[in-house]
Design a protein that fits this description.
By secondary structure, the protein is of the alpha+beta class. The chain contains eleven helices and twelve strands. It is globular.
Length: about 300
């Protein structure tokens, strides 16, 4: 099962963190983050409003995940009387402070940060996330020390900090994923699907053998499902057809190879099972918005 492989296969890159503090009765309007945003509640109670206006209660040691580009609101409990609006996400290497109300009277304290989370690195583990996800980690004794460790590593920025933050965030995410299926309709659909061993085996195969020649029939044969039942179940959970998922994984793999390896574009096209460079280039540009050559140049520039 993919979930059992998370610790050894997950890829996490943690970006600059902020501490948001709110006084009683204050609201903090936050912009859509440039990447997946995590809020970890260090102390206090309140409400987080997602991009669709859904309200989620805030309590200590709850972890919230906000999708890329989703504007949202943090609110401290108490009669609402004032608000602070932030137009741009924090940047830079140090932990910054965002204060709504009085710094000396912080009733709600939340650690915030952006992270890129992938499996393998072909699968975005928060693909198709459209609203805020909330998980209660108060029963996990390792959660608070792990998150405090992330903040400490970001504050120090010493040798090995990136690796340590990734390891600590991975620990938090494993606990997060363990509890997510119990959260009902708020859970990620693909994660619910992976509780089904049959579909889990198919995803494992696609990720382990990306260069194989797949058809819907060959994939349906793995869980011994009919072609129509398999295709219907797959699309329901993963938001795309089986073959669309295979092609998505291959293009994600190509993006990774272009960014980290110096192999020729022709060779990478062959690795991800495209018969010609032209066919690969068109498909990759449709996927990423850039031709392979330009994507590689931008990746190396950063």
């Amino acid at each position: 099962m993919l979930l059992n492989k998370l610790p050894s296969n997950i890829s996490v890159h943690v970006k600059p963190f902020a501490i948001c503090t709110l006084s009683k009765g204050w609201r903090l309007h936050l912009p859509g983050p440039p990447g997946l945003l995590f809020h970890f509640v260090l102390e206090g109670n309140g409400v987080i409003y997602g991009p669709r206006g859904d309200a989620h209660p805030i309590a200590p040691l709850h972890l919230f995940v906000v999708p890329t580009g989703a504007k949202h609101i943090l609110e401290c409990r108490g009669d609402f009387r004032d608000e602070l609006k932030i137009d741009t996400s924090p940047s830079g290497e140090q932990v910054c402070q965002i204060v709504a109300g009085s710094r000396e009277q912080a009733d709600l304290v939340i650690g915030c940060g952006i992270a890129n989370v992938r499996y393998d690195p072909s699968l975005d583990l928060f693909d198709h996330l459209h609203d805020v996800l909330a998980v209660d980690l108060s029963s996990v004794p390792q959660a608070l020390p792990a998150f405090q460790g992330i903040l400490a590593e970001r504050s120090q920025a010493i040798a090995g900090s990136d690796a340590m933050m990734a390891a600590l965030m991975t620990q938090c995410l494993v606990h997060f994923y363990r509890r997510l299926p119990s959260q009902g309709e708020g859970a990620l659909p693909w994660l619910m699907a992976l509780q089904d061993e049959r579909l889990g085996r198919v995803i494992d195969m696609i990720l382990d053998a990306r260069d194989a020649e797949y058809t819907v029939d060959s994939m349906a044969a793995i869980p011994a499902m009919s072609r129509s039942d398999f295709a219907e179940n797959f699309a329901e959970y993963f938001g795309r057809s089986p073959m669309s998922f295979v092609n998505h994984v291959r293009k994600q793999r190509a993006a990774h190879l272009l960014a980290v390896e110096n192999r020729s574009i022709d060779e990478i096209a062959g690795t991800v099972v495209y018969s010609s460079r032209d066919h690969f280039s068109r498909a990759f540009e449709d996927h990423s918005g850039l031709p392979p050559k330009d994507f590689r140049s931008e990746s190396f520039a950063h």
